[in-house]
Design a protein that fits this description.
The chain is an alpha/beta fold and 266 residues long. The chain contains nine helices and ten strands. The chain has two domains: 2-98, no CATH class; 103-250, 3-Layer(aba) Sandwich (Rossmann fold).
């Protein structure tokens, strides 16, 4: 059974889902499950495996859901009599969270995309490359990419399942492809969408999409022009500015210097 629980956790991570694993680390006296028992708990309240059933398991599931909400591991210790269980023993355990690697979906496979891939790979993202040019979008050029999709960008993005944890970067070769890519993802789940381009180009694309029925409120969520204003026009610096913006969103950071927030001299 334990191997099936571990496999379920592995599958969830591959699907971009967060999951908690509950482990019984110790028991005293009479208890429904012994040391080493494990169970998986998902954010929707579903479970696989068991750590005892009854009130103790119900209480542990609630604790695991709390950990998932707070994104924090936590230990626990319960006296079963206090949970209206006549076993009379005690159980201790630990709730370990497993978070999927953040996914970076890059529409485009040109110079900026290549530099983004290199930096994001160091930062431990699962990277998806999408471009309609097979001589650009291939595993020779992006050997460590999670996926490389050589298809029409609009079609590929329209059919791609995203989650609220995914980061989408649009850096295609022209404004028409950028517009089609943005149109394909604007109604999907995402943590971040950013699109490259000048202010003039961004305004042109946004106005076109508004005329096609996409709301201004939706488009206001798009980071465009993309990236923090810290770079020159070199592809590697543009990529750094983009990933800096993504990390700002991902880690709920600030634009303050650490020097000013750590107060070394106080």
């Amino acid at each position: 059974m334990d191997d099936k629980i571990i496999f379920k956790i592995y599958q969830s991570l591959n699907q971009g889902k967060k999951v908690a694993m509950v482990v019984i680390t110790d028991e005293i006296g009479s208890s429904p499950r012994k040391r080493g028992s494990i169970m998986a708990v998902w954010e929707d309240g579903s479970t696989f495996g068991t750590v005892g059933g009854g009130n103790v398991e119900y209480t542990i599931i609630k604790k695991a859901l709390e950990c998932l909400r707070n994104n924090k591991d936590q230990g626990f210790h319960y006296k079963l009599k206090e949970l209206s269980m006549e076993c009379g023993g005690e159980v201790s355990g630990y709730i370990k969270l497993f978070n999927p690697k953040p996914k970076l979906i890059i529409a485009g496979a040109g110079h900026v995309a290549e530099k983004l891939y290199q930096l994001a790979n160091v930062l431990n993202f699962d990277i998806v490359i999408i471009d309609d040019r097979e001589d650009y979008a291939n595993h020779m050029k992006f050997p460590d990419a999670y996926e490389v999709i050589a298809l029409n960008i609009n079609e590929a993005l329209s059919n791609y399942t995203t989650t609220e944890e995914d980061f989408i970067v649009i850096v295609t070769r022209d404004h028409k492809s950028d517009k089609e890519a943005l149109k394909a993802v604007i109604n999907k789940k995402y943590a971040y969408i950013g699109m490259i381009g000048s202010v003039k180009k961004i305004r042109f694309i946004m106005n076109d999409l508004i005329n096609e029925g996409i709301s201004i409120d939706q488009l206001k969520d798009v980071y465009a022009p993309i990236g923090l204003d810290i770079t020159n026009n070199l592809p590697e610096e543009i990529a750094l500015g983009i990933l800096s913006e993504i990390l700002l969103i991902k880690n709920r950071g600030s634009l303050n210097h650490r020097k000013t927030i750590k107060k070394v001299w106080d």
